[in-house]
Here is the input.
Amino acid sequence: VQALIAKDEL
Amino acid sequence: MNIFRLAGDMTHLLSILVLLLKINATRSCRGVSLKTQELYALVFVCRYLDLFTNFISMYNTIMKIIFLASTFTIIYWMRFHKVIRVTYDREQDTFRYQFLVLPCLVLALLLNSEFTVMEVLWTFSIYLEAVAILPQLVLLQRTNNIDNLTGNYVFLLGSYRALYILNWIYRFLTEPNYRQYLVWISGIVQTIIYIDFFYYYIKSWKNNEKLSLPA
Here is the structure.
């Protein structure tokens, strides 16, 4: 979950 | 997307634009670290592999392509442009890639949220971004006459990182279950690296002097 959220940042 | 995130991305974009304009207008890349630019290229390539697998938004895709294209343009100019490459401070830009790349790679292999190729490379890019500015800071320290635009470039990059911290705080307060410890810690380390530079940048601006970093 952690990784998925972070991936909308650049 | 919140205002801090947008402001952060725009500052990041502006920093790259300043660098592109400086090099293109003055036909000189004096004071610019090719090592830092190549490390950023590696950061972007490793992080944006998901361009092919995962569509987030048009904004996201366009920004990723801009960051990749602009960084590779700068590298191309510094390495191959017949006028610009002559102005590169090769002898001063001596920071060794392996001192940054290897520890980040090892750390990414040990500390990640999922042991897959994509995830390890993504995590590696997060760690490497935190330290990729170091060759540029070392080069600035060695440059007697720091170009205003080069100083502004580093200042804008540092501001982008500071705005991202505000973005994380905002998201943590407004989005349930929003947490990403590895990214936060790397981001804080990255921002701390700029503090010394910020101090001298603001001091020189206040006193209306040319920026110079003490050795």
Observations:
- Chain B has a mean pLDDT of 95.
- The longest helix of chain B spans residues 148-174.
- Chain B has eight helices and no strands.
